[in-house]
Design brief:
single chain; six-stranded mixed beta sheet; alpha+beta; elongated
């Protein structure tokens, strides 16, 4: 006699076990994939800063001074990113891939183009060396930066919203101090130098309740694995914990000294 083997399907219990295993694997692997994706964005951001750092070095070789934060030109204001553009020839390097699309779409267009940029320039010590009695932005000379490998040139910026414990999210139509990204094209040191006449780079006057005395300060952004990518004056790029760079002015003033 011939016996026909009967086909048997999965039981409900077996299906539930398979679904449970898949769910557990997904729960384990998803954070790994998310972290890997952010690592890739961090690497892309580092590449952007590397290109801008090299552009600053080329500019310094040409002019023996660092780019000023801004110049008043006929027809508008020329800022540091406009000055670097002929050297990098790519506006994409000014956009951090970890920022929301709404912010990156605005920052290179519109009436306030570049104001809410991904990266901030060391305004107080590179882009503005004016004495107390002088107005405008005066670039600092190459010779004035004694420790270029320890002096911040550019870094991830949260703008003036960074010093609020509960900041507002990015809004292209708002320039309030407590908005993330506002005045992102500059970064300020922990303590203002005497020549700043007490003013941070933004001139914003609304004080953050959470951080008294930090009104208008543009803060470094810890958006990459709870840290910040930094391009130094010698062109190298390194990741730091934000609090390390906010202890004193030694990473900012070009002298490697903690005092402002």
């Amino acid at each position: 006699m011939f016996h026909r083997s009967a086909r048997r399907g999965f039981t409900l219990i077996e299906l539930l076990v398979v679904i449970a295993i898949v769910a557990i694997l997904a729960a384990i692997l998803m954070p790994v994939f998310t972290q890997a994706r952010e690592k890739a964005r961090q690497a892309s951001c580092s590449s952007n800063l590397k290109q801008m750092g090299l552009a600053i070095q080329m500019y310094v070789q040409d002019y023996e001074a660092y780019p000023a934060f801004s110049y008043n030109r006929v027809g508008g204001v020329e800022r540091w990113y406009d000055i670097l553009q002929p050297y990098v020839k790519n506006v994409g390097v000014f956009v951090c891939p970890s920022l929301p699309q709404s912010q990156t779409a605005f920052q290179m267009t519109g009436t306030q183009r570049g104001r809410n940029l991904s990266y901030g320039y060391n305004y107080q010590y590179l882009g503005n060396s004016r004495p107390v009695a002088q107005g405008g932005n005066v670039p600092v000379s190459d010779a004035a930066i004694q420790v270029p490998a320890q002096t911040i040139a550019l870094a991830d910026s949260d703008g003036t919203g960074g010093y609020y414990l509960h900041p507002l999210s990015y809004d292209a139509g708002t320039t309030a101090c407590n908005v993330i990204g506002n005045h992102g094209y500059s970064i300020d040191p922990p303590f203002l130098p005497a020549r700043s006449i007490g003013f941070p780079s933004s001139g914003c006057t609304s004080p953050p309740v959470d951080f008294p005395g930090k009104q208008g300060f543009s803060r470094l952004s810890a958006r990459h694995q709870n840290g910040v990518n930094v391009a130094f004056c010698d062109g190298h790029v390194k990741w730091f914990k934000r609090e390390v760079l906010e202890r004193d002015n030694s990473y900012w003033n070009g002298r490697g000294e903690p005092m402002p």
